[in-house]
C-alpha cells in the first residue's frame, strides 16, 4: 500500500435513496490504529479523503454511499486518483459481513455502525473484497479552445490563428509525453485532430491505460484547456484486491469459428465471459488455465462436440452436459443475470451456470460439513470427481503430524473472578436488552410499513378493477366499431357498384334514345341481331323479336352456316344480311341464287341486342351487291355456255370418229 491509510464506512442513519441526507460512521485505519468518527455527512467524508488520500475506502455495500450508478460515478470522480472503493463482501455474489468476520477471527456487534466500519477497514487491510471499477482501462485526453471565438472584428483572423496555434502547440507537448510514456511502459495510444485556421480546433487522444497511469494532468489557460477523463464501463466490474491461489473452476464452452468461453468459480462468481473468433485449441487452453484449474468443462448441447471433449481431456476435467438440447428461452433466462454480448457468450454462460446449479446443493453440504481450516475448493474438486464428502475430506486432511501443528493448542484455563464475570454478564445483558429494544422498534416499524402496504395494495386492486371494467367496455366498443366499420366498407363497395351500374344504364339508355331518334327521323334503320348462323339462334331471334319481310339482320358469327340456315333467312323475306366476317361458300351461293344481299364491313351502331345502320350507307352497299350479283350471273352464264360448247365439241369429235 502507498500510505497505509484505509477508510471503513458504514451508514449510521437514513439511506442514500431517502430525501434526508444520510449520516455515516467512519473508521480510519492508520498504522494499525483505528480512529472512529460518527454521524458524518458525505461531503465531510470527501473532505477528509482529499486530505488523507487513503488507499482504500471500504464498505460492505456500495449503494450505502450512492443511490444509483450515476451517483456512484460522481462519488468516484471526486476521489483522489489512487484511492480505490472496495466492497469487502465481494462482487456480484456477496458474502455476509458477519460470516466474513468470523472466517477471519473478528467479532463485532452488527448493530453498531462504528464497529461495522472498523470491520470493513480491517478486512480491506487483509486483502478481502473487490475493487469497484466503473471505468475502462482507457483514458480520453482532449485539448480544445478554452473560449468561444465569437464573431470578432478586424483582428478576428489573427486571434483565431493565435488560439488554434496554442491548441496545436499544447497537443504537440502532450504527444511528446505520451510517446515517451508508450516507449517506457508499452501502453498504446491513438490521436484524432480537427484542423482549424492556423492550427487545430481540438485534438483527442485515446490512451489504452488507466487514468492514474497516464502522466497527463488536466489544465486550463486563457486560450487552451486540457481535460483528462476515464471511459465509463457499461456495467460495474468487481476486481479482486489480491490474487488468489490457483482455484478450481467450472468452464462453459461454445465451440465453432467463434468460440464462447465462460468461467465460474466454485462459489458461482463469474471470472470470464468472452467470445473470440478464429482462436486455436492451444490458445483456448492457455486462456482457461490463466483463471485456474477446470474441475468441470461443460457444454450446452448433446451429444458433446469433439472440440469440447478435446478441451476436457487437456485438463482431465469432468464433463458437464445437459443430457439433451437446451431451449433458447432457458439459455436467455440463465445468462441474463450476468449479461452477454452475443449468442456464443450466452451459450457458454448457460452451460457453465447449468453445471453450477447441478452441483449447488452438493457444494452447500460440503461447506457445512468441512472444517474451516481445510481448503473447501479441494474438497469440492474431489467430490466432483466421484468421491463422497467424507472421502474428499479425508483426502484433503493433512497427515497426523501436520494436523497437530495446524490445530490450535488448548489454552490454559484459570478460575475467573466472580465479580468480573458478573460485571461482564451484566454488560452482555445490557447489550442484549438494547438489541431487543432495537428489534422491537424495528418490528413495530415493519408492522406499520406492512399496514401501509396493505392499504396501498387495496387501493391498487380497486384501481385495477376499475381499469379492467373500463378496459372491458373499451374492448366491446372497439369490437362494435370494427363491425360497423366492416359494414360501412361493404355498403360503400355496394354503393360504388350500384353507381357504376347506374352510370352504364344511363349511358345505355342514352344510346338507345339516340338510336330511336335517328330511326324516327329516318337517319337510321333498325337491325335485328342473330348471335350465330344456326337454326337455334335464328329461331330465337324469330321468337323474341320476330323476322318479317324487309327486316335487316346482323350475323355476329357466320361460321358453320349452310344452304339450310341460309334458306331460313331467305324464306323470312329479310331485306339484307349484314356481317363482319366471311360467310361459308355454300351459304353465300344460296344467297346469290335467292338474290338476298349479303353486306360485309358495314358500320353498325349497336347497344346490347339493338343495332342500327345508316340508310344511305345501306343503299350504297346494296347497289354494290347488285353489281356484284350481275357480275356473278354473267360469270355463271359464261361458265354454262362454255360448258355446253365444250360438250358439243366433244360429241362432234365422237361423231366424226
Automatic annotation (TrEMBL):
Region (Disordered) location: 402-421
Signal peptide residues on this chain, from the entry's feature table: none
Highest rank taxon of the organism: Archaea
Keywords of this entry: Coiled coil
Listed Pfam families: DUF460
Coiled coil segments of this chain: 422-508
Protein name per UniProt: DUF460 domain-containing protein
Native organism: Methanolobus chelungpuianus
Amino acid at each position: 500500500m502507498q500510505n497505509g491509510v484505509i477508510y471503513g464506512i458504514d451508514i449510521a442513519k437514513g439511506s442514500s435513496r431517502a430525501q434526508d441526507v444520510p449520516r455515516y460512521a467512519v473508521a480510519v485505519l492508520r498504522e494499525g490504529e483505528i480512529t472512529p468518527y460518527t454521524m458524518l455527512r458525505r461531503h465531510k467524508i470527501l473532505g477528509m479523503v482529499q486530505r488523507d488520500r487513503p488507499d482504500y475506502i471500504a464498505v460492505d455495500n456500495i449503494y450505502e454511499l450512492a443511490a444509483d450508478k450515476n451517483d456512484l460515478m460522481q462519488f468516484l470522480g471526486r476521489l483522489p486518483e489512487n484511492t480505490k472503493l472496495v466492497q469487502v463482501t465481494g462482487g456480484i455474489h456477496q458474502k455476509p459481513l458477519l460470516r466474513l468476520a468470523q472466517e477471519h477471527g473478528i467479532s463485532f456487534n452488527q448493530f453498531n455502525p462504528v464497529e461495522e466500519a472498523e470491520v470493513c477497514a480491517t478486512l480491506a487491510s487483509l486483502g478481502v473484497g473487490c475493487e469497484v471499477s466503473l471505468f475502462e482501462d482507457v483514458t480520453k485526453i482532449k485539448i480544445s479552445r478554452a473560449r468561444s471565438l465569437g464573431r470578432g472584428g478586424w483582428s478576428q483572423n489573427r486571434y483565431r490563428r493565435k488560439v488554434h496555434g496554442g491548441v496545436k502547440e499544447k497537443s504537440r507537448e502532450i504527444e511528446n509525453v505520451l510517446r515517451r510514456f508508450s516507449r517506457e511502459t508499452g501502453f498504446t495510444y491513438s490521436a484524432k485532430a480537427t484542423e482549424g485556421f492556423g492550427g487545430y480546433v481540438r485534438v483527442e487522444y485515446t490512451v489504452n491505460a488507466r487514468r492514474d497511469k497516464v502522466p497527463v494532468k488536466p489544465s486550463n489557460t486563457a486560450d487552451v484547456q486540457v481535460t483528462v477523463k476515464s471511459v465509463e464501463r457499461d456495467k460495474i466490474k468487481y476486481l479482486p484486491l489480491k490474487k488468489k491461489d490457483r482455484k478450481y473452476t467450472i468452464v462453459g464452452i461454445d465451440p465453432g469459428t467463434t468460440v464462447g468461453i465462460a468461467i465460474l468459480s466454485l462459489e458461482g462468481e463469474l471470472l470470464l465471459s468472452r467470445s473470440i473468433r478464429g482462436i486455436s485449441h492451444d490458445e483456448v487452453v492457455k486462456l482457461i488455465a490463466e483463471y485456474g484449474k477446470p474441475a468441470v468443462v461443460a457444454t450446452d448441447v448433446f451429444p458433446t462436440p469433439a472440440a469440447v471433449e478435446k478441451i476436457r481431456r487437456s485438463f482431465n476435467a469432468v464433463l458437464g452436459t445437459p443430457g439433451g438440447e437446451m431451449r433458447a428461452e432457458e439459455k436467455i433466462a440463465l445468462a441474463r443475470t450476468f449479461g452477454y454480448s452475443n449468442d456464443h457468450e450466452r451459450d457458454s454462460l448457460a452451460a457453465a451456470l447449468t453445471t453450477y446449479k447441478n452441483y449447488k446443493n452438493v457444494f452447500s453440504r460440503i461447506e457445512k460439513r468441512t472444517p474451516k481450516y481445510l481448503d473447501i475448493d479441494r474438497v469440492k474438486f474431489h467430490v466432483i470427481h466421484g468421491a463422497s464428502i467424507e472421502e474428499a475430506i479425508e483426502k484433503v486432511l493433512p497427515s497426523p503430524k501436520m494436523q497437530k501443528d495446524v490445530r490450535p493448542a488448548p489454552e490454559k484455563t484459570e478460575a475467573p473472578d466472580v465479580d468480573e464475570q458478573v460485571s461482564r454478564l451484566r454488560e452482555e445483558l445490557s447489550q442484549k436488552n438494547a438489541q431487543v429494544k432495537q428489534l422491537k422498534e424495528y418490528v413495530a416499524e415493519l408492522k406499520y410499513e406492512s399496514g401501509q402496504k396493505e392499504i396501498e395494495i387495496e387501493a391498487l386492486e380497486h384501481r385495477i378493477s376499475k381499469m379492467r371494467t373500463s378496459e372491458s367496455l373499451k374492448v366491446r366498443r372497439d369490437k362494435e366499431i370494427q363491425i360497423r366499420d366492416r359494414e360501412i366498407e361493404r355498403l360503400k363497395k355496394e354503393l360504388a357498384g350500384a353507381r357504376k351500374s347506374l352510370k352504364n344504364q344511363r349511358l345505355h339508355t342514352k344510346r338507345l334514345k339516340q338510336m330511336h331518334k335517328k330511326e324516327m327521323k329516318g337517319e337510321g334503320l333498325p337491325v335485328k341481331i342473330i348471335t350465330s348462323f344456326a337454326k337455334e339462334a335464328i329461331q330465337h331471334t324469330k321468337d323474341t323479336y320476330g323476322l318479317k319481310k324487309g327486316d335487316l339482320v346482323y350475323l355476329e358469327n357466320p361460321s358453320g352456316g349452310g344452304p339450310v340456315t341460309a334458306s331460313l333467312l331467305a324464306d323470312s323475306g329479310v331485306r339484307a344480311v349484314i356481317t363482319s366476317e366471311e360467310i361459308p361458300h355454300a351459304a353465300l351461293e344460296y344467297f346469290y341464287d335467292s338474290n338476298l344481299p349479303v353486306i360485309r364491313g358495314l358500320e353498325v351502331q349497336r347497344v346490347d341486342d339493338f343495332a342500327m345502320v345508316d340508310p344511305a350507307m345501306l343503299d350504297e352497299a346494296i347497289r354494290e351487291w347488285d353489281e356484284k350479283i350481275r357480275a356473278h350471273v354473267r360469270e355463271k352464264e359464261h361458265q354454262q355456255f362454255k360448258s355446253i360448247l365444250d360438250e358439243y365439241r366433244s360429241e362432234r369429235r365422237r361423231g366424226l370418229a
